[in-house]
Amino acid sequence: MQDRLTWAQAACARVMRPLVRLALGMGLKHPHLESMLRDLLLEEATRLWQRQGVAAPNISQLAVTTGLNRKDVTARVRRPADPLPHTELSAAAKTFTRWLQLAGQDAALQRLPIAAGNEGTSFEDVAREASRGDVHHRAVLDELMRLGMCSKVDATHVELTAEGFVPTADLQSTLAFLGDNLRDHASAAVSNALGEAPLLLERAVYAEGLSEADCEAVHQLMRQRWSALHRELVSQLSEAITRSGAQGARRLRVGVYLFHDEREAQG
Asked: Which Pfam families is this protein grouped with (predicted)?
């Protein structure tokens, strides 16, 4: 049992190291991280009991599971609001994804007239379809331009300027994507380690003794392959959503990553 705890603690330390680097780089201190960890322990313990059939675990059950004292559990039973946006729900993200899909099928659609008219497909058409008309296309366009996803060619036309919806021009959105993507990547690995479901795809290739040029060559190869796979995935998922009328109960996120640094910097 002690080995099991030691191994799990070491695995958590490896996963948390880059997150601690992020926290320090953004100015978070030990009290911020400790408070966050206590909240997460309580939320996950609640889910653990709920999966075992206990709809509303009591204070004692949560205290025993988390190791937090009863007073602390009582003070934290209400989940705090998440200040980051939900990346998968925004009209801008949906519009960009649909536009990217269309541009992959026809390169001419990389550039679109802003307003619907007699020039074929317009940005207004794409935004209306993607957001189901819930958000005005001008508001969606303003958001995509603010995030650096597209730009105006002239007063009446806009053009895609990004290959994926990863807005680096806005810190809040960047952190939201970081959180969502790393959460789901880690969730797949944790699900596999705990044997909670059929094994999910979670693979990586490691090599060392490489030059920086070697790493960059692989980086470009992966960008090219991902671009093609991304178009195929978006097409298949769009068709699936249409078939189900967007009423399916499951969500899915597919991603890819690449990282390289000096061997001495590994932790």
From this structure: DUF6502
